[in-house]
Specification:
- The chain is an all-alpha fold.
- The chain folds into two domains: 95 residues, no CATH class; 81 residues.
- It is built from eleven helices and no strands.
- Helix 9 packs parallel to helix 11.
- The chain is elongated and about 70 Å long.
C-alpha cells in the first residue's frame, strides 16, 4: 500500500468517525442540497483538500446516487484528467437540484407574502426560500427589502416608519409591530394578505 492510499484510508476513518450523512438519491432536491451543505461543512472542519473530498464523497453515496456518481465520474475521467470538488458540485446540482426546480423556488420566494402567518412562520418560509435567490442572499439590504415587501400592509407601515438599518433591525421592528397589533386586537391576529 502506497503513501497516498494510507493517507486516504486515514482520512476516511477520520471522516467516518463524524458519522457523515448518506445520500441515496431518492431525497427531495432541498434534502439533497442540505446533504451537500452538511458534507461541505464537515470537509471544511476537517481541512480536507479538493482531491481528498472527491475521493471520499463516493463513500457517502448509495443506491441511485452511487450509480449516478459512478457513471458521471467515468464520463468526467474520459474528458478530463482531474475531477475537482467544484466539478463534482456542478454535476451534483445538475442531477439533484435541477435549474427548473431552483427557478420555481425563486419565483415562490418572490411571491412569498406574510398573509395569515405569524412573523416567525413567515421568517421560516422566507429563509427556507432565500437559498434559491443567491443574488438577494448576498446583500443585507436586499434581504430586508424583500422581507418588508412581503409583510402585510399594517406591519410594513410600522416597520417603515423609519428606514431599518439592517435585516436584524427589520425583523425586530416587524416582531414589535406584530405584538402591538396583537395587543390592539385583543390577541386575535387575523391579517389581510
Amino acid at each position: 500500500m502506497g503513501v497516498s492510499e494510507i493517507l486516504i484510508e486515514t482520512e476516511l476513518k477520520r471522516f467516518r468517525s463524524f458519522q457523515p450523512p448518506i445520500l441515496k438519491g431518492t431525497e427531495t432536491p432541498v434534502d439533497c442540497e442540505n446533504w451537500l451543505e452538511d458534507i461541505e461543512m464537515l470537509f471544511e472542519f476537517l481541512g480536507f483538500t479538493d482531491e481528498c473530498r472527491v475521493t471520499l464523497i463516493g463513500n457517502q453515496l448509495q443506491e441511485i446516487a452511487r450509480n449516478w456518481w459512478l457513471i458521471t465520474k467515468g464520463a468526467l475521467e474520459q474528458r478530463s484528467s482531474r475531477i475537482t470538488w467544484k466539478i463534482f458540485k456542478v454535476e451534483f446540482y445538475h442531477k439533484f437540484f435541477p435549474v427548473s426546480y431552483r427557478q420555481d423556488k425563486s419565483a415562490e420566494f418572490s411571491n412569498l407574502r406574510h398573509g395569515h402567518l405569524s412573523i416567525d412562520e413567515y421568517l421560516a418560509q422566507f429563509f427556507t426560500l432565500l437559498r434559491f435567490v443567491p443574488h438577494v442572499a448576498r446583500n443585507d439590504e436586499a434581504i430586508s427589502d424583500q422581507f418588508i415587501r412581503g409583510l402585510n400592509p399594517e406591519i410594513r407601515t410600522l416597520v417603515n416608519v423609519k428606514q431599518p438599518i439592517n435585516f436584524v433591525d427589520t425583523l425586530n421592528r416587524a416582531k414589535r409591530a406584530e405584538m402591538v397589533l396583537w395587543d390592539k386586537r385583543g390577541h386575535h391576529m387575523i391579517f389581510q394578505p
